[in-house]
Every structure is written in structure tokens, then in C-alpha cells.
Amino acid sequence: MIVTYEAINRSGDIVHGTLAVQDMPQAQGELNRSGLIPVRVSQSDTRKTSSSGKTAALLPRWRRNKTGNARSASRRELPFFTEQMSILLETGTPLAASLSAIERQATCPHWRLLVTDLRHRVEEGNSLAAAVAAYPEIFDPIYHSMIAAGEASGNLPAILSRLAQLSRLSDRIRRKVISAMIYPALLTGIAGTAMIVLIFFVLPRFTDVFEQMNVSLPATTRTLLAISNGVRQHFLPAIIAAALIVMSIGLWWRSYPGRRFVARNILRVPIAGPLICSVINARLFRLIGLLIESSVGLLESLELTICATKNYLYVQLLTSMRDNVINGRPMYEALLKSSLIPAGIAQMVHTGEENAQVGRIMSMLADYLEDRNETQIGTLTSIMEPVILIFMGLIVGTVAISLVLPMFDLSRIS
Fold it and tell me: How many CA atoms lie within 13 A of 393 on its CB side?
């Protein structure tokens, strides 16, 4: 088949061409062997008419003309930007040419404007660190500091590679959690739908039947029918009350007392609390390890990690670690006093401090914790699924028994 490609050569220029290959993987291999970085590879359709070709040629131009706002760029595109910058710089592409190449292939108008502004700042003589510092809502202080350290040490491609790795690890954990919650959420949704159908459509019909039967109903049946009647008669006030409760909880959650309450108690939840604590520990150790290995000072690394931490208990822990460093005491003393960090991990940090390998030890701890967290998330998911199924079975069984018991009583009386 014939494929058309758009790729970046070693000079950072965009090149176009066609290849005659058997499949897409062969096309990718041919481009890599030619020293080209593929941007877009697609199968060429020779049956397209000239009018359709003109329409297709107008699409990229239309996309480029779409208006956007650089300040509105989403952080979801940041891992892709970091990965592409790392690859381009590692192949020897100049910084401005790398930004230009990413600008051309950006599909989001907001990100295209953002990269365009970064390129302009770099071409005017500013460093990449100074350019990204103009957008703190997209590039956080950790990102900016690591870029600055990479430019100062002349090791910017490796720093960008580490940042891309950090983004990939965060995305992997997030996807793992989301995928673990899909099935329980689906089961919960099915159970909620079944209860709505029972309350609004099934139970009212049984109410009429039981009234005609004129038999004494069991306590469970009376309770079930009372709940159905109450919900149906006060449906609108119940919806309004539920909406107000949800809004109040949301506002309280965002308030300072609410955040402190959640941070203090969420780590005490059985099973889930230790897992959340371990996930936060892995992220903090990863950040500190990457910063130190990127030639950022220990004190500055702790300051940046404090800025990137939302849980106030961990902010207090990191602040204690920073104060120990300022006063010439080891960090592990603060870790030993905290209930958030296991004693074995604190001892490993102490070993790293004694051997001047804090960054390496922190990264090793992050690797260990991340692997363990993935296993625990999978285990927790496998436990939640049967628990939810059992809970659904109990609800359905209770409803079924409550509706059938009066029938048995009627047959016995007859």
C-alpha cells in the first residue's frame, strides 16, 4: 500500500513524502531508519477526487485559523508536549526549531498559541525556563525549576525525559484508579436504576393488590411500601433537598475547614486510607528524587514539593523536613516522628542522607511504592466487585421476599 507521511528531520524541518510498504509498522520502521520522527502517517487513497483533495487541504488551514487563548491551554496536553520536546532535543534539534515543529502539529488552538508564544520568547533570546515561567497556571514551579536546572547544567533533554516520565507515571496511576472504579460505578448505577424502577413503577401496583387482598402485611413489606409512597409523594422536595445538600457539601469541601477535615480523616478510612497515604508518599518521593537528580538543591526541592502538596498533614511533614535541613539536622528525624511514613522507609532515607544519595534513594522508594500501589489497587478492585454484587443481591432479595410473603400468607389463609 501507499502511505503519506509528515515527519521531522534532524534539522527540525517538516518534510512530506510517500512510501510503498506492506503495513503501517513497516512505514514507521522505514521512517525511523531514515532518521525521521513521524508526526502523521496515513494510508494514501488514490481514488480520491481532486475536489476532495482540495477540501482535505483546506482542513489544516481552517484549524490554524481557529481562535484560541494561550492561557486556556489544558494541562492534559503537557505530557505530550514534554515528550515531544525531549525526543526532538535528544536528536539534536535546536530549541526554537523543536518548538516550531510542535507548533505545526498542535491540533488544539490554545496549545498552538501557547507554543507559538514560547517560540517567540526563545527566539528573542530568553531561556525556555523564563518562557514557561510566564504561564504558571500551566507549568507549575516544579516544571519551571527542573527546566531551569536542565538548562544550567546543559542536560535539558534528560530533564525533559524525566518530566515526561513523571507525567506518564501519574497518568498510569490515574488510569489505574479510574479503570478500577468503572465496574463498581456501573454496578452501583444499575442498582440505583433498579431501585428507581421498583419505587416508582413496581411497588405502587403491589400496593393496590395488597389493599384489595385485605391481609396483614409483614413489617418489611409495610416499611418498603411506606418508603415508596413517601418518595413518590415528596419527590420534588426530596430532589431540591438533595441538590441543596450536595451544593452545601461541595462548598464546605472547598473551604479551609473542610479541606483540613477531609485531609485529617481520609487517611483514617479502613483499607482505602493506607492506600491513599501510600500513593501520596510515592508522589512526594518521586518529586523530591527527580528534583535532586536534576541538580536542584535539597532545600529548594523541599520548598517546591511543599508548593505542589495539597494535604495539609503532608505540608506539615515537609515543612518539618525543611526546618531540619535549615537547622543542620537530618530529614529522617521528621519522618520518624510522623505516622504518615513507615519506619522502614524513614530508615532508608536516613541511609541516603548518610551516603549523600538522597535523590537516588527517593527515586527507588517511589518505584517500590508505585509498584505496590498498583498491586493494592487491583486487589481492592477484586474485593469491591463481589461486595457490591452481594449488596445488590441483598437489596433485590429483601424486596422480592417482602413482596412474596403476603402471597404466602394469603394462600395459608385460603
Answer: 6
Check if the beta carbon of residue 91 is closer than 8 Å to that of residue 45: no
The span from the CA of 62 to the CA of 272, in Å, is 48
Nearest Cα to Cα of residue 126 among 92, 96, 83, 91: 96
Distances (CA, A) of 179 to 105, 185, 191, 259, 366: 30, 10, 19, 26, 22
Residue in the structure block whose three cell numbers are 535546536: 94
CA distance 84 to 90: 10
**Sheet with strand 14-20: strands edge to edge:** 14-20, 2-8, 37-43
Distance CA 60, CA 55 (A): 10
> Is there a contact between 102 and 115 (Cβ–Cβ < 8 Å)?
yes
> What is the C-alpha to C-alpha distance for residues 94 and 266, in angstroms, rounded to an integer?
47
Q: How many Å apart are CA 184 and CA 180, to the nearest integer?
A: 8
| Contact call for residues 304 and 142 (beta carbons, < 8 A) | yes
Dig out the grid coordinates for 197 from the structure: 424502577
Cα angle 344, 370, 337; round to 5 = 30
The predicted pLDDT at position 55 comes to 42
In this predicted structure, what is the pLDDT of residue 58?
41
Cα 30 → chain centroid:
35
Phi, psi of 136 (to 5 degrees): -65, -20
Residue 81's H or E segment, with its range, is: helix 78-90
CA distance 26 to 85: 25
Asked if domains 70-139 and 187-414 share a fold, the reply is yes
Architecture of the domain delimited by 187-414: Up-down Bundle (1.20)
- pLDDT given at position 63: 43
Per-residue pLDDT at 22: 65
- Could you list the mean pLDDT of each consecutive 10-residue stretch along the chain, which spans 414 residues? 72 70 68 70 52 42 52 80 87 88 84 90 89 87 84 84 81 77 80 80 77 74 81 82 88 81 81 86 89 85 85 89 90 88 89 88 90 84 80 80 72 55
User: In Å, what is the CA distance from 38 to each residue of 73, 98, 102?
Assistant: 24, 14, 12
Question: If you search the block for the grid coordinates 520502521, which residue do you land on?
Answer: 29
Superfamily of domain 70-139: Type II secretion system (T2SS), domain F (1.20.81.30)
- The ranges assigned to domains in the chain are 2-65, 70-139, 187-414
CA pseudo-torsion sign 350, 355, 356, 358: negative
pTM of the full predicted structure?
0.66
